[in-house]
Amino acid sequence: MVLALCVLVHLSVMVYAVRGGLSAAEILGRTQGNWGFAAFYAVFVVACVVHVPVGLANIACEWWGMREPAALWLSRAFGLLLLVTGLRAVYAVVAV
Fold first, then answer.
1. Are 49 and 79 in contact (CB under 8 A)?
2. What are phi and psi of 33, to 5 degrees?
3. How many other CB atoms are there within 10 angstroms of residue 18's CB atom?
4. What integer pLDDT is reported at residue 59 of this predicted model?
5. Mean pLDDT for each consecutive 10-residue tract of the chain (96 residues)?
């Protein structure tokens, strides 16, 4: 449910920004130093990291014919990659 709420908020913010005619520079100007924004998107990243590996492991087993241990290893490695890159992106948008 956390992921669904984050997706809805994210889509709403995107629609607001596009309809408001904000440029990328204006959006970055509003997000820099905004730790509320950072907290929301950090929660979004963590929700994705919890959700994605479960589905990826199932896909690897059912569609690609991988054995469960290999599929779990692959999905957890991908989850770690998502965590690192997602939190790095949040930091870059807010702090830099």
1. yes
2. 80, 0
3. 9
4. 95
5. 95 88 85 92 96 95 94 96 97 88
Give CA separation, 18 vs 14, 15, 26, 29, in Å. 6, 5, 11, 15
User: Locate tokens 């997706």: which residue?
Assistant: 7
Q: What would the two tokens of residue 22 be? A: 């904000």
Q: Concatenated DSSP letters for 16-66?
A: HHHHTT--HHHHHHHHTT-HHHHHHHHHHHHHHHHHHHHHHHHHHHHTT--
Contact call for residues 90 and 45 (beta carbons, < 8 A): yes
The full set of domain ranges for the chain reads 2-95
Quote the tokens at residue 26: 């204006």
